[in-house]
Design brief:
489 residues; alpha+beta; Beta-clip-like; three-stranded antiparallel sheet; 46% helix; globular; Znf_MYND; methyltransferase activity
């Protein structure tokens, strides 16, 4: 028996061993549980004017508790889980928790040119990502997030390495860069060189919620560190969505550990509750609650069939997707497996987590201050512009058209994910000038009355009727909004 067959049998045994617990984790929460959870979430986040309700037809929906005018902010939603695309990390240095740009204009420019000079650059078009999960996400109009273009039409003019390093290291100050101050970069508490933050608060929050289990710093034991690096390498080479799933599992484990530690402290170190399996699983169910509220299907069942795959090969394609998820999970299991949270490492759970992101994730986009900086220079008048461009023009020419690349990633937002689709929506994801982090920002596109459902479009609503319906079939429903009913007849 080869090693792959052996590992498959061991893994299937794990799924079978915890089948009861897995069923409990995947059991949809009751209407009362859903209502209580979202009522508390709306209250905690001070999302005034909103109410999450079960509407009977499409599950959860978001409704207006007060009137909203056209252009008014409806919701700013903090992500439950989010990650920057690995290919985008070459272009943008952002906080690993809130995704705000950090460092300085000089650091952003110098770092990008330095990595380009080393040949590290992994180009991507800002509005697309080759991974399967991007094809099916709830996409936002990137023009609405600010200019986010990446074209290769302009030939780059390289700069000397010494000049690039001087800017990156802060030895050179570019003109008017102080007009665009950025938070200083704070290093990861675990000492890895992958995560940086805009503040100590974000660093501590990320460590507490996710990163302490996913940090590749030297403080981590060597076997676990090597396994985690293999997992990350696999995710980078196949699909970023695996890293989102890893963060979801890590956050659940860390919530469980925190609750159990508090329980032990409350009842005494020698209390038998510390060895009570039923009590421990109740804590795991509670820790899992934020994930349980998201709509889920298995990834290999719900991922859209690519255009280049014949429908007759669909079964084979979906099995390949399942095997890809299995490979990823095995690597994650080797890195962060927790025996008390073993059900989380079943393929069934992993598949449903990824499926939740496949069906509900929103593009994470933060406009680049580097673009704003060069536009500011371009808007200067006469001699000021001429003097500034003598210094800035060589850097702009070295960056080429890629100077404007924004932070790009994927995230799951608990409140926004409750918004249902309409091809004639009354709201949309739209970043305003002041929205400089990764939170989801939903703006009214027309007046919304009290008690009216707030809807967004999961797709390009300007497409013809049949194309819209085909795209929405990947989400498992047919749209019957007023626009579709009119165009169908």
């Amino acid at each position: 028996m080869d090693s792959s067959s052996s590992s498959s049998l061991i893994f299937c045994q794990l799924d079978k061993e915890f089948s009861k617990e897995i069923s409990s984790l995947l059991k949809p929460p009751s209407s009362k549980q859903v209502q209580e959870y979202f009522d508390e979430l709306v209250k905690t986040r001070q999302c005034n004017g909103l109410k999450i309700k079960n509407n009977g037809n499409y599950g959860k929906g978001v409704y207006a508790e007060s009137d909203f005018n056209e252009g008014e902010l409806v919701l700013k939603d903090q992500m439950l889980v989010g990650a920057q695309h690995s290919s985008n990390k070459v272009d943008c240095l952002v906080c690993s928790y809130c995704f705000r740009f950090i460092g300085s204009i000089e650091l952003q420019i110098g770092r990008k040119l330095y990595l380009q000079d080393l040949g590290v650059s992994a180009r991507m078009e800002c509005a697309t990502e080759s991974s399967d999960e991007e094809d099916n996400s709830l996409t936002a109009d990137h023009d609405d997030f600010g200019q986010c273009s990446s074209s290769n039409s302009k030939k780059k003019v390289p700069l000397p390495r010494e000049t690039i390093e001087s800017v990156m290291n802060g030895d050179v100050e570019l003109p008017y860069s102080k007009q665009f101050p950025l938070p200083s970069a704070v290093s990861c508490p675990g000492g890895c060189e992958e995560a940086y933050y805009c503040s100590k608060i974000c660093a501590e929050a990320d460590w507490e919620f996710f990163h302490s289990l996913l940090c590749t710093g030297k403080c981590l034991g060597t076997p676990s560190r090597e396994a985690l690096l293999k997992f990350i390498q696999h995710a980078d080479g196949t699909n970023d969505i695996f890293y989102l799933a890893a963060k979801a599992i890590s956050s659940t484990i860390l919530r469980y550990r925190k609750s159990k530690a508090a329980q032990v402290q409350d009842k005494g170190k020698h209390n038998e509750v510390s060895g009570n399996d039923n009590s421990d699983f109740s804590l795991l169910l509670e820790a899992w609650k934020p994930i349980s509220m998201g709509y889920k299907r298995r990834w290999w069942d719900c991922v859209a069939l690519p255009d280049d795959v014949d429908y007759r090969d669909e079964a084979s394609f979906r099995e390949q997707i399942r095997e890809l998820a299995f490979e990823s999970l095995q690597l994650l299991k080797e890195a962060i497996f927790d025996k008390e949270c073993a059900p989380l490492f079943s393929l069934e759970i992993y598949g449903h987590i990824i499926g939740m992101f496949e069906l509900n994730n929103l593009d994470l986009v933060v406009a680049s201050p580097v673009e704003d900086y060069f536009l500011y220079i371009d808007d200067l008048q006469n001699e000021k512009k001429e003097r500034a461009e003598r210094i800035t023009r060589p850097f702009l020419d070295a960056l080429g058209d890629e100077y404007s690349i924004c932070c790009q990633g994927s995230a799951f937002f608990p409140l926004q994910s409750c918004m249902n689709h309409s091809c004639h929506p009354n709201a949309k994801a739209f970043k305003r000038e002041e929205d400089r982090d990764g939170q989801a920002t939903i703006i009214a596109v027309r007046s919304i009355g009290k008690e009216e459902e707030i809807t967004i479009s999961y797709i390009d609503e300007d497409l013809p009727f049949k194309e819209r319906q085909a795209l929405l079939a990947d989400y498992g429903f047919k749209c019957s909004c007023c626009k579709c009913l009119e165009e169908k007849s």
